[in-house]
Design a protein that fits this description.
By secondary structure, this protein is α+β, with helices and mostly antiparallel strands. The protein has 2 domains: 152 residues, OB fold (Dihydrolipoamide Acetyltransferase, E2P), CATH 2.40.50; 122 residues, Aspartate receptor, ligand-binding domain (Four Helix Bundle (Hemerythrin (Met), subunit A)), CATH 1.20.120.30. Helix 3 runs parallel beside helix 6 and helix 3 runs antiparallel to helix 7.
């Protein structure tokens, strides 16, 4: 797919300023002249019977403004769905480690082999932990705190089995219980803090409000990154930069002046076209 196919109109860069926003760890930009305001996400009035990407309406300074969930429009989960999906996964990984210690204890009582992962990198949480990335500095710091207690929990399997072989069953049970009270308790607290931060992120969204000839429409973004100049970026194959299904929303590709990264230029007319499908009086 050529960039001419992907981008439907010519974009004048020059000395123009652009609002660069982040949506699901992708950088998008919209002409600053089209942006009326940017506000922390206000309360949302849901509208029945509308497309999923039409979140509803917000009240901005007394005006009812349709809100487009651009994540959903791009074929991604909404930020609230993404957060709850991640929290559900974390619930499962917490229960895994409760069960891990229960099964280790049971293996001693039944004097059988312990079948669960003893390598901290091979349990379900370890595989997720080693591959998960985030730009959120708070989450990065929190995730680092998991490493020591998680490794310690898995390390006791070998010690417990040595106690079992030596007939020191009480020592094995004591070590398991101490691990529950200390390392597992620490991990449970970290899991709870992780879920809280993830859910709080859904309340940090920003509504970018566009205005044209007196009409307003808003779209939700995860964060506003910068206001900066962009330079034209000539891309032979736009499919290398963004999924082909996004081609209706992207009108050009710009090179960022601050990070040298790419930003996908959004078509502001798209949002007004979508907003025309909403009857604010329904709210």
């Amino acid at each position: 797919m050529s960039v001419q196919t992907a981008c439907r109109q010519q974009v004048e860069f020059g000395n123009q300023l652009w609002i660069v926003v982040n949506i699901d760890q992708n950088s998008f930009a919209i002409n600053a002249l089209d942006v009326h305001d940017m506000v922390a996400m206000p309360p949302l009035t849901r509208l029945p019977g509308t497309e999923q990407y039409l979140s509803g309406t917000i009240n901005h300074r007394g005006q009812i403004v349709p809100l487009v969930d651009f994540r959903v429009l791009l074929g991604r989960k909404s930020i609230s769905e993404t957060a709850e999906s991640l929290c559900s996964l974390i619930d499962q990984r917490e229960n895994d480690h409760r069960n891990w210690l229960d099964q280790l204890e049971l293996s001693v009582k039944e004097q059988r082999e312990f079948a669960l992962a003893t390598d901290p990198h091979k349990c379900a949480f370890g595989k997720w932990y080693d591959s998960y990335t985030t730009d959120d500095l708070v989450l990065q710091g929190l995730l680092r705190k998991f490493d020591t207690p998680h490794r310690t929990i898995h390390a006791i399997a070998e010690k417990v089995k040595k106690y079992e072989i030596a007939g020191k069953f009480e020592a094995a049970y004591t070590l398991i219980e101490q691990t529950r009270e200390h390392e597992l308790s620490v991990m449970i607290e970290l899991f709870a803090a992780f879920r809280q931060i993830v859910r709080e992120q859904t309340r940090r969204q920003v509504a970018v409000i566009l205005e044209h000839e007196g009409a307003q429409v808003a779209f939700s973004v995860d964060a506003v990154d910068a206001v900066e100049e962009l330079s034209a970026e000539l891309i032979t194959d736009a499919a290398d930069v963004f999924p082909v299904e996004w081609k209706n929303w992207i009108v050009a590709i710009g090179r960022r002046s601050k990070t040298d990264g790419l930003a996908l230029i959004l078509d502001q007319e798209l949002f007004f076209d979508l907003a025309a499908r909403v009857d604010p009086s329904d709210g």
